Amino acid sequence: MQSLATECLARCVRVIDIAIAVDIAKRICNHISTHSDRNKPSGMSIALRLIVSRIAAKPDSGASLGQLAIPIAETLKDSSALTSDVVVDIFTALVDVLDHAGAQIADDAEALDKVQSLLLTYIGNSNTAISRRAVTVLGIFVVSVPGEQSQKALDVIFQRYTDAASKSDRCTMLRVIVTIARQKPELIRGRVSHIIDSELETVNEADSDLRVASLLAFKTFVANAPNLVKPRLGDIYEAGAKATQFDPDYNYDDEDGDLGEDDEMDTGSEDGLDDEFDDDIYEDNEDVSWDIRLSGVKLLSAIAESELATPEMVVQDIGDLLIKRFKEHEDVVRAEILFTYAKLFGMLSQKLVTAKEEPSGMDVDNGIYEMVKQQIPLAVSLLLSSIKAHPKHTETKQLAFVVLARFVPLSIAAVDGILSQILPFVISTLETSDNAGTSQAATTGIVKANIRIDALDFLLEYAKHAELTAEADDFLFAVTDKFVSVTSSNLVMVQASVYSVSRAIIKLLRSAAKNSEKRIERYLVWLNKITGLAIDVANNKENALQVAVYPLIEASIQQFGDLLSDAVVDEALKCLTTWNQGVDKAHASMDVLLHAITKPTHLPEECVVQNASLIMRQASEKLQSTNAKTQQLALALIASLSKYNTTAIDDLGPSTMARIVDIIGATPESPPLMALRAFAGMCTHVSIDTIKKNPMQLLDSLSLATVYDKLSATAMNELYETVGRLFPDVVGFWETTLVTKWVKDYVQFNSKRASRAAAETTQVQNPINRLPVLAKGIIALRSGYCEQSGVSLSDKLVSNVQGKTPKSPEDMASMCLDLRSLGYLAAADSSLKESESLYEMIYTHLQSSDSDVRGEAAFALGNYVGAFPSSFDKLFKSAMASVEKKAAVVAASEAAAVEAPGAGTIGAGSVESLQAVKTAIEYTLRDKTPAAASASASAAIDEEMVKYMWQLISESAQTSTSPMPDILAQCLAIVAARLPQTFIPQLASCVEESRTIHAKAFFITVFRTLLADKSIEGQCDKVIKDVLPTVMSNISNDDVGIRKLGLLALCTVIQNKSGLFDELARTIQPALFAQTVVDESLVRTITMGPFKKRVDDGLETRKCAYQCVHMLVRNMPQLADADAVVDCVVRGVADEQEVRVVVQQTMNESVGSFPTAYKARLDDLVDTISAAQGKKQGKNAVKQEIDRHNDMLRLTVAIVHTLVQFFPKQANDETTKLGEMVRRLSNMTDSMPNASELAAFYREIRAPTRMHPNKEAFIEGVDHVLAKWTALELAVQNGWGGRRSREKRDTMVDEIVEYFDQQVRKKTAAVGAVAVEPTDVEELLLQVMDEDFSVMLEDQSEKEVARLLCTIFAECRAGNFETVDRMADEREAKGAADSAASRSQAAQGAAAAAEGQDGSSGSESDDGSDDSPMEE
Q1: Of the four, 250, 711, 982, 1253, which is 20 to 30 A from 817 by CA?
Q2: How far is it, in rounded angstroms, from Cα 1351 to Cα 1358?
């Protein structure tokens, strides 16, 4: 009755006024304080906790909750009159009050005093549960209550810690400090060093409780303040190492005699300690050493996970120590040791696997791999000994399987050596019941809910990496014998794991049969059984594993379809060709069938041919589906099936091809890859009449294609080539139609662009973008035809170009196509022959008056010269002559202050000539191995050509009297990257020794181009680092243009190759910051009639300097000079608008890194901002000036807003300059300059966005759904997402809500619909669980979660909150029930202890994993 009343009261709070709820809470407090039965368990304390929690959930509840601080404190005056359960309930309510009303309590002196005094009293309570809860709440008090009183409380805590008369008091105060450090490490940052020094003096001699607290403090500081720990890391590691080995009461020499003993102990969760502060603090008064060892292991784990530990330290020091402790006799400590060791491998796994697979990679990674490789045999041996010594301890075996699974990819040989010994444990594990799970011991987030899953995960890794030796063969055969019985498990995850392992073993067996002819006949009985079971599951639409078994069916019939029984193969194909049981099953069936029939496959061809007509008919029908995935799978099936030599599908050819054409026509600009492949495949199953029949729709679509990805381009070419080869009679018609269509579009576009309708055209619409696809298509079409007819394709294309001078627009278009085709032909190392006349003919088109023709001629000529490098000298000299001629004409016209006659046409083709040079260089230096030359000869020819190209370009730059084009800098960078050891030092010398400004500028640009290329590393980077100081010295050059180029190069190296900049960073910063100062010698005033204008020739250079500073604080803040950065920002705020934009970005990036430096200059910064915002615009300002002025004001406000975020104390204090500015910005009545504009901008930036109540309800509903998701809650509780698992779970709510918002916006814009399909949401859930928690869902629970989310979303959009409210009530009731159950268990344990019974249990946990995806 009492619990029902409590539940009703808590529900009422959801609908009544908040003031009434507060009054109810006060009455409950009064009842607890005054009634004589207050020492008995009461529902009143539960009601208080629930009501306060409900009030806290309401918006803007801080002021109301603040009223409850004193009443709640009053209830706790007499601790002796309250049970521990009641006290913990009241403390929980107080936590909500502190969390949500900390600011209000800070303003109430009485409340502050009562709460603080109360907590300081309770932390010394003799009841452990109450004391721990008080420790937690005191930490929250310090963290949540702002102001001096909170700081005073912190001072009291530290004083009591320092002056503690007893070890018990010191231990208690240290635990309070730890709780604060976890939540807000910055509060104690200044005292961490003192605490570390103090605790290190006594940690190894301290008693159990204090030593545990010290180790926990070290662990917390390592995780939250690593920089402060770094100086004493060695000592802290030694403390952890000694603690890990501290076991004075146990003789490990005698442990061999204990192999049969049951060592298990009860390590259940603690009473009343469920928040994030105290998850590591617990005691066992019956043991004086195991908790010390456990704390030591956790400290070592924190060091390994921190940024302080090098990989060598993790492996050599921590790893070696943990391995030696595998013999630990206490279950909970041994489990933590194994867990920590497994985590170490998780942290290093990617590096280790990479080092194994790429021995030529980084030396550091290879060194770590060698360390681990030497370590693994001993680890495996001791791990096996640990399992044997504790055969009944489930968690030891679970973690052993986890560790072994991580060893497998690194040292399969070490695991192979113990297969026969580990086999009995694997077999016995597979034979365990569904309720054999993990014991409630140390943190075990990486083990699964059932031990069989961990064993199967190990088998999965082994099967993926093993070779089928005799030992491996016997081992796998023995375990597969148990798989059939394991599939009868009631746990979905267990069943799914069996099928996954079976699939991996099938692939291993096929690989073994292929490579070493090993006998696999003895597996066939198992193979037929497991495949048959999987087919039964797939046919049962009520089975949650229905879709999950398809990968096994695929592997089985694809790898062993020729050895499986006919009945199993027939049943499999029948299952896979049944597509009418829902979208998901249809997709799974189609996907598996696709892989099974795609050649090469071991599925007999006659089996495919027998089912070909059925598959083709169904796939053809699915082409009309509106589901994109269904359509893609159908196309892929048609493409694969068309490769079979059967006439069974010929009758369906015409109708199927017509549907494919419709699909291509739906997106002609980017035709689907599979549609192109399917069309090409079906060509072999249709007649020429089908191809000729109404082809215009297809050709119209293909002529519009603009394909950028290689796969689609290849598929397009295969389609053309197939048509040309199989149907030569249609080649002429297809080519003429495609070319005519493109030429028409091209001419119309250019005509429109030249007319008044130019505004209606964009470069994206230009048909020239479709030219590459069309040219390749024509070549492919003709190549198929020429292959059949014996005609030379190159002769045809050359004849199209030679002797033609295009005049009409149509001729120009045709010439563009022919030149592009010729360029592709030259690039393909085809039968094209070197010809002087062909070179001259292409070069002639390079001088065309049409820019498109010139561009295509450059492409053709560049590829031609690349194919025949002997022409490079001629091309380069012609290009340079064209450039110099154009430069001379331009210089003459500038000197005469008039445009020279014909200047617009002189030098035509100079840009295109240079482009041809670049294309030729790229072609010549690309990686290719000529068939006629040996590798050494090829390398010699390449090097000789590279040196010649370098000489030509560098000498031209040194002798040029005018600026060199940037495209030549790109060319020289390509050349330098080919032989970096030779040319990069020469490049640095050229930069240093160039005699002209033009040459120096050119070589700096070359160097910058090299820096910007992220694809060149290794030797290139090493050489660049050596010459970097020489090149970077130019940021102080006398010439402002050279300084600008030097700064741009510096910005590029910081952004793209910051690792090369480490050593130079300290020395170059003074010169960099000097460039942010206005150089008055570069400022001039020009007179324009009655007006004067200030021109700053150094502005662009100064802006580049500020951009360098921005990149420095963004990418390398640890190397930046904090004071110099802040000085730079203060200066920049008063600079020109172009600079101020960069300054604001710099401040946003750096204020968090340098808060002390900014705080010291805060007043100066505010003064500069005030001066800048006071500038007025002229009365007759034009629109451009008005926009510029508003941009300046908006930027000013943004800077102020950033300062407010980082310095709230100063912003809220009107006696400070920042506080005064904030006040003025907030009030439009002020007479400050630009007041109205500034106030409007300030409101725009700071104003919170009001959320619609429907969306608020949906957010709440998402949170409730995730709370009911078992897989997610297990991931959070066990820390599978790391230390921030809870934060990741909360972020998941935001991601889901944002995803729904995006989907609605997309669908509304597209079709006016707003429904979100569950299948849309499932992929997001799978992705987040995989990326954030490393959980691969195999229980299909994401489907139920997605369905429920979509239901709630639809209801909330309609204003229906019934489901959300119901879930909230269920969640609250469950919380109350869990609390009551926990208390009941605690009471039973206390009673058992009082009667002298042993409360520990040596049996394994009876709690099986819940395979239901959602708790109903």
Answers
A1: 711
A2: 11
Record the pTM: 0.60
Residue 909, sorted as left (phi over 0), alpha (psi -120 to 50) or beta, turns out to be: left
Q: Return the number of other C-beta atoms located less than 10 Å from residue 987's C-beta.
A: 27
Q: 127 is written with which tokens?
A: 């009841």
Q: Quick one: which H or E segment has residue 1091?
A: strand 1091-1096
Report percent pLDDT > 90 for the chain.
12
pLDDT confidence of residue 1251: 60
Grouping H, G, I as helix, E, B as strand and the rest as coil, residue 1087 is strand
Do residues 777 and 720 lie in contact, with contact meaning Cβ atoms separated by under 8 Å? yes
> Which contacts qualify for 467-473: CB closer than 8 Å, 24 or more apart?
467/412, 467/512, 468/508, 468/509, 468/511, 468/512, 468/516, 468/518, 469/416, 471/416, 471/419, 471/420, 472/416, 472/419, 473/518
Q: Tell me: the pLDDT tens digits for 949-971?
A: 899 899 888 888 888 888 899 99
What element of type H or E holds 1099?
A: helix 1099-1115
For 196, the 3-state DSSP assignment is helix
- Please give the helix or strand (H or E) that residue 330 lies within, else none: none
Average pLDDT over the chain reads 78
Tokens 């893609």 belong to 632
Distance of alpha carbon 3 from alpha carbon 795, whole angstroms: 94
β-bridge partners, 1093:
1086
Rounded-to-integer distance, Cα 1355 and Cα 1362, Å: 8
With 80 as the cut, is the pLDDT of residue 1030 above it?
A: yes
Dihedral pair phi/psi, residue 206, rounded to 5°: -70, 160
What's the token pair of residue 126? 């003799």
How many angstroms separate the Cα of 728 from the Cα of each of 703, 724, 767, 786, 1277?
Answer: 19, 5, 27, 9, 68
- Name the most confidently modeled range: 30-34, 63-67, 980-984: 980-984
Q: pLDDT for 1227-1262, tens place per residue?
A: 543 444 555 555 555 555 444 444 667 788 888 889
Q: Measured between alpha carbons, how far is 142 from 152 in angstroms, rounded to an integer?
A: 9
CA distance 637 to 674: 9
Structure tokens at 1185: 């000036």
State pLDDT tens for residues 192-219: 888 888 888 888 776 778 888 888 888 8
What's the pLDDT score for residue 1042? 92
| Residue 502 binned pLDDT confidence (cut-offs 50, 70, 90) | very high
- DSSP conformation class of 1404: P
If one compares 1355 and 1337, the residue with the highest pLDDT of the two is 1355
The closest alpha carbon to 560, from 601, 611, 597, 588, belongs to 601
Q: What are phi and psi of 627, to 5 degrees?
A: -80, 120
Give 102-138 pLDDT, tens digit per residue.
Answer: 888 877 888 878 888 888 788 777 777 777 777 778 8
- Residue from 937, 1003, 936 nearest 975 by CA: 1003
CA distances from 147 to 65, 105, 309, 470, 1210 (A): 18, 10, 37, 73, 13
